[in-house]
Amino acid sequence: MKLSRLTSNLLLACGVITLFSWTTRAYTWYVNDLQSDPYLAWLHFPIIGIFLLIGVYLAYLGIRGRRATRQQKS
């Protein structure tokens, strides 16, 4: 499947935004939630991990798509 430059840019942007928002959420989880209610905090831990992995994968796909479209133009 071929990705256009626009699609690659959108994937990269979604990945970066996801990583930024869930990294700040992980910080908030560590500072606030983990200190107040450890049981509830550990329920959120897998969600944070899954969304960080999704963000990394989206950014990876966006970067690979951008590199592939750059090589096709040359």
Automatic annotation (TrEMBL):
Keywords: Membrane, Transmembrane, Transmembrane helix. InterPro entries: SCO4848-like. This is Uncharacterized protein. It comes from the Bacteria. The chain crosses the membrane at residues 42-63. Pfam families: SCO4848.
